Amino acid sequence: MLPGATTAGPAPSQAVHEAPQIWNPANPPTPHVDPFEDKRLSSTAVPPTAKFQHNVALFAEYDGEHLQGNKTWATSVTYLNAEQRQQFKLTVKDGKIFDAEGKPFDTRNGKTACFGGGAGKAIFVMDHDGNLYASNYHAPGKFHHSSFLAGQPVAGAGEITVHNGEIQSLTRNSGHYRPSAAQLEQVAHNLSSQGLSNFVVDQKIQ
Question: What does the DSSP assignment read for 82-142?
Answer without folding.
Answer: TTGGGGGEEEEETTEEE-TTSSBP--TT----SSTTSTT-EEEEE-TT--EEEES--BTTT
